[in-house]
Amino acid sequence: MAIKTIRITTAEALVRYLIAQRTIVDGTNVPLFPGAHGIFGHGNVTSLGHSLETHRDTLPVWRGQNEQGMGLAAAAFAKASRRQQIMVCTTSIGPGATNMVTAAGVAMSNRLPVLFIAGDTFTTRLPDPVLQQVEHFGVPSTTVNDAFRPVVRYWDRITHPAQILSSLPQAVATMLDPGDCGPAFIGLPQDVAADAFDYPESFFETTIHESPRPRPDRGQLARAVEMLRSAKRPAIIAGGGVHYSRAEAELAAFADKHGIPVVETVAGKSSLVASHPRYAGPVGVTGAEAANAVVRDADVILAVGTRLEDFTTGSWTLFPAETHFIGLNAARFDAIKHRSTPLVADAREGLIELGEALEDWSTDTSWTENATRLRGELDVFVNGRIADDGVWPPSYAQLVGLVHNSATEEDYVLTAAGGLPGELNINWMSKAVASFDCEYGYSCMGYEISGAWGAAMARPRGEVFAMVGDGSYLMMNSDIYASVLSGHKMILVVCDNEGYAVIERLQTSQGGASYNNMLSDSVGTGTGARVDFAAHAASMGAVTFEVHSLAEFADALTKARQATSTAVIVTKVRAKDFTEGGAFWQVGVPEVSERASVTAARASMDKGLKDQRPGI
Fold first, then answer.
1. Which of 4, 80, 261, 319 could form a disulfide with 455 if both were Cys (CB 3.0 to 4.6 A apart)?
2. What are 436's strand-pairing partners?
3. Consecutive H or E run containing 302
4. Contact 200, 5 (CB under 8 A)
5. β 196-200/5-9 pair status
6. Sheet of 154-157: strands edge to edge?
């Protein structure tokens, strides 16, 4: 029997294939690829752009203002949807493509699925060099799209129409794999995109995908159970993998039944609601001293879905060398870090089977009570930080407290680089699971606004609050207009401390002089000039508020919630009032210097490194 085929272009086949992919979210059959972010240029508008327009009702394209921004929005969408749906990003060749590389890095470091599709040069090379082509004299097959190779899990350049028959399923499988999940890249040369081919009709049949949930190996499970049963002071570190596995309920039940305190990484924050009896707080450099004290004293740590980055581990000074780790992770790479006993499995299924094997075992009540006492100290500390001291401008913590007070269980808060991650990580007490996003894997300035746009697309209920510093705002702000244009509302809080204050703090705390971070110590004759953020946001269609007291700020939050489109609240904030974290962090301080302050800082750094856990 002859295989039925249909003769269409490569670009058309790509679009039809993406539309045919479906998934189940909360019992409902929905598109795996619900939409795309796109900026068209000569490398993608005439073929891929034509096909996307033809199918605009089933694969809508949201117009981006900057290619990096739309990639960041796609990454935030994936985070907010807990990796259940995937956005597509398409650009032309050249600068459009390379603008997306940073966004790909964000998705890669945070293990988030995004499908990047960029135009590419002609495979025939007959018209070379084409507009925007960067020529490599000794390697003519290299284009700027090769820059994506280090920042994606799957990379391919389609040089013949038939290749998408194998490439697209592999890209989708990679993005859905819990262990290898990350962004995928497809380079689509201009001639190949336009070429026709006889594709099998079966290639476009509807496929319903379910993310695989690997179960733990019996031997690994037995070793993990033995370690926990022998533990006197066990603790759990909850990472982003808890969210991606949608294992929050299982984590809460496991911790409660076995009496084990839970601390959260930045990516894992809101794995538990703050009112859960086993919640001990945020861990690491941007964590709280009370929470760090729990893991510092623990003898066995169950690390669930975390890649154990330096901000979580205090550059590996937070844990004594004798602390034992169990790495419950879908990725083998993460499960074996720092001599961990691996438990390679889906977080939800791993917790279920681990709990069943432990039966009625629970830790000693004195250890549980100690964690509860430390959690009480955290509450006292946070309440002191967010309290109104009657001084203007306010601290970050005071602003976080007011946003938190106004938020409901359906709301979502988001931030990224600078001082705000530490402020939110410590001072925000989660009211609902999966309600928090701090992009700190790549610590990407500019994520805040674009990310809020993407998160708003993923969340049909509640408000999306984004807290952003003036530095990140100036770096990337055009997606305020994108959110207005698309109708995806967010509430943006712009905290103006007149510079890159958190990096200035690092600069001076390590013995350096304040230079080129605060506006006041930058080079130039216009250092007294200031941006009117409220007017700027208003020019992009946002409802804006500029406040001059905490009472005005609280009132603006109420009015922003009542607004029907994106609202921006602008406030001054103290430049040097930060909530202190509770862990050491290794940075590169000069070994020799003519500055006594730098020499002293290096001595302090060397002293801290004496507690660093060996990386073997």
1. 80
2. 413
3. strand 300-304
4. yes
5. antiparallel
6. 61-63, 36-38, 88-91, 115-120, 184-189, 154-157
Under a CB-based contact definition with an 8 Å cutoff, are residues 22 and 32 in contact? yes
In-domain check, residue 323: yes
DSSP designation for 111: T
Residues 462 and 426 in one domain: yes
How far is it, in rounded angstroms, from Cα 144 to Cα 97?
8
> Per DSSP, what are the bridge partners of residue 116?
89, 185
pLDDT digits (tens, 9 = 90+) for 245-262: 999 999 999 999 999 999
Q: Do 531 and 494 share a structural domain?
A: yes
User: SS3 of 465, please?
Assistant: strand
Tokens 């891929």 correspond to: 48
Its pTM stands at: 0.97
> % helix / strand / coil in the chain, to the nearest 5?
40, 15, 40
Look-up of token digits 């809080």: 493
CB 148, CB 116: distance < 8 Å: yes
Any domain includes 63: yes
Q: Assign residue 422 the CATH number of its domain.
A: 3.40.50.970
- 341 shares its domain with 472: no
For the CA atoms of 196, 200, 202, 203, the dihedral, rounded to the nearest 10 degrees, stands at: -50
Tokens 């680089």 sit on residue: 417
Q: What is the pLDDT of residues 561-588, one digit of tens each?
A: 999 999 999 999 999 999 998 899 999 9
Element holding 608 (H helix, E strand)? helix 596-609
Task: Please state the separation of Cα 303 from the chain's center in Å.
Answer: 19
Tens-place pLDDT, residues 363-412: 999 999 999 999 999 999 999 999 999 999 999 999 999 999 999 999 99
CB 33 within 8 A of CB 88: yes
Clarify whether residues 326 and 400 are in a common domain.
no
Domain that holds residue 322: 218-377
